[in-house]
Backbone:
């Protein structure tokens, strides 16, 4: 299995797309961190609450990991490389598991990088302002951003395993996260079932990483998100195991 | 050794492959022929585990493809669709495959050299010509030094030198005892390369034969040229043989050359040419796959 994960890593590194992912992530995280520090009122400077808000600027990594997970799978169909991939590894479930593990690993790297970028912007800035970055109470938030980014990546792989068209998968998934879940939750609210919306994957992950205070408790959000990752992975496996590659 | 037994595959309402059985033996090149849409690619993809059979089974070295341990070391395949990422260099494409198949990275340089693609190895595949793409596919197929090769239209996009190169290359691989199954619609090319042919039409087997058997399918006929064509026609007619004039002044006779030569000698007719008529693969192919030759009730 490890050699398949290594192969996935090589696939990422041997086209130029990763440069775009990195540039986007570094740019967005830096801008968001600068915005948060720059707009902070004086009385919040040096508080751990502000520090946690600054760290949240790193959660752009979740979006990048989600996209990267979807693309890792759908690019195989877009460019027809799936034929060669399945010739080398005819047990298709192993390909899926390798991509899930790869997405978890890349999610980890992206989140750590995003956190470093955010700190590289915020810490010197606060020092220059005569304040400082209060580290107490921030470790938990940072770890949750890392874990959430990993789960978003794996979720993306599962979606790509179910929907192979790259554009439909990306557009559909992003619309679902940005709009679909909110609309569905609102609709469920009309029949007094708004709580069910908390169990949707995007809202569960927001509850887990702390970007959405309402909804499920943190650990429940994490557990629901893991369940979604596994469920989409199983559905994707069922689809891929039987389909014809023509 | 490749075995196909009663393979049947339906796509929607189209019966792509219909109860097809044949084998490809080690040490020989088997040509897999049929008109466009006859079911060649579907059959090859079923053999390679990419398409699921509705009925019947396929085996390579005695096992279905998906049950082979280390398939890259047992079977190499080139399919008609280009299967490298356009943004990745040919060399990196092969490095990824070698990593996934646990092959030593040194194999990458070896196969690039083998298919004469070393110079372009570091260029991104999107800039490759059709011929270079075929060579890259072949390099991927050869990575694991497999004993079985399955090639779908490998001559596509190759220039005459490339086709010559491919033919010699496949011959040398077969001489090493490997099993080679190659589909093609370029019949003249196939005829010079293969030892056996499997001809399918509308998803069904119409003929499985050696090239010697194909050539013998027109046995018993001869072409003859004589400065005394009229006298020869008369001599042949007296012996009960009909001679049909050919455009170039020769005659086509439905008799073995031995008999014609004996009659001519006995009657003192001068002959300038006397050859046994061999069926070409193309003639046999066209007669077997002619539209009106379709199986009844189909």
Residues:
């Amino acid at each position: 299995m490890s050699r398949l994960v290594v192969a996935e890593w090589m696939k990422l590194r041997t086209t130029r797309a990763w440069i775009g992912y990195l540039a986007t992530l570094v740019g967005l995280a830096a801008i968001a961190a600068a915005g948060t520090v720059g707009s902070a009122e004086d009385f919040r400077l040096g508080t751990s609450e502000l520090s946690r808000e600054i760290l949240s600027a790193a959660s752009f990594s979740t979006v990048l990991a989600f996209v990267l997970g979807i693309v890792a799978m759908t690019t195989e169909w877009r460019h027809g490389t799936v034929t060669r991939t399945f010739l080398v590894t005819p047990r298709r479930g192993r390909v899926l598991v390798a991509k899930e593990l790869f997405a978890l690993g890349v999610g980890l790297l992206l989140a750590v990088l995003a956190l470093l970028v955010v700190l590289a912007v915020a810490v010197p800035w606060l020092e220059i302002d005569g304040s400082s970055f209060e580290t107490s109470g921030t470790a938990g938030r940072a770890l949750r951003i890392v874990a959430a980014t990993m789960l978003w990546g794996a979720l993306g792989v599962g979606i790509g395993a179910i929907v192979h068209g790259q554009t439909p998968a990306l557009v559909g998934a992003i619309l679902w996260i940005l709009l679909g879940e909110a609309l569905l939750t609102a609709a469920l609210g009309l029949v007094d079932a708004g709580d069910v919306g908390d169990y949707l994957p995007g809202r569960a992950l927001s509850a887990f990483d702390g970007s959405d205070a309402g909804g499920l408790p943190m650990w429940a959000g994490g557990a629901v998100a893991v369940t979604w990752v596994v469920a989409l992975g199983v559905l994707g496996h069922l689809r891929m195991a039987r389909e014809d590659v023509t | 050794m490749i075995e196909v037994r009663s393979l049947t595959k339906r796509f929607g309402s189209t019966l792509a492959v219909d109860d097809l059985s044949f084998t490809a033996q080690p040490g020989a090149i088997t040509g897999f022929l049929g008109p466009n849409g006859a079911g060649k690619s579907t059959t090859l993809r079923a053999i390679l585990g990419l398409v699921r059979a509705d009925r019947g089974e396929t085996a390579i070295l005695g096992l279905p493809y998906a049950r082979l341990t280390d398939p890259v070391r047992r079977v190499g395949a080139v399919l008609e669709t280009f299967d490298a990422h356009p943004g990745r260099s040919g060399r990196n494409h092969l490095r990824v495959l070698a990593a996934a198949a646990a092959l030593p990275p040194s194999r990458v340089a070896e196969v690039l050299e083998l298919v004469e693609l070393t110079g372009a190895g570091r260029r991104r595949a999107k800039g490759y010509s059709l011929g270079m793409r075929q060579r890259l596919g072949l390099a991927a197929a050869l990575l694991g030094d497999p004993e079985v090769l399955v090639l779908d239209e490998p001559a596509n996009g190759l220039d005459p030198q490339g086709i010559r190169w491919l033919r010699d290359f496949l011959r040398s691989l077969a001489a090493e005892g490997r099993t080679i199954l190659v589909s093609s619609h370029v019949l003249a090319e196939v005829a010079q390369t293969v030892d056996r042919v499997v001809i399918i039409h509308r998803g069904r087997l119409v003929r499985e034969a050696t090239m010697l058997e194909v050539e013998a399918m027109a046995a018993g006929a001869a072409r003859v040229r004589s400065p005394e064509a009229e006298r020869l026609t008369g001599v042949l007619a007296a012996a009960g043989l009909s001679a049909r004039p050919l455009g170039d002044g020769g005659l086509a006779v439905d008799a073995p050359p031995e008999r014609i030569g004996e009659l001519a000698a006995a009657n003192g007719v001068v002959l300038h040419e006397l050859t046994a008529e061999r069926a070409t693969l193309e003639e046999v192919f066209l007669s077997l796959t002619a539209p009106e030759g379709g199986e009844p009730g189909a």
About this structure: The mean pLDDT of chain B is 89. The first strand of chain B starts at residue 2 and ends at 11.
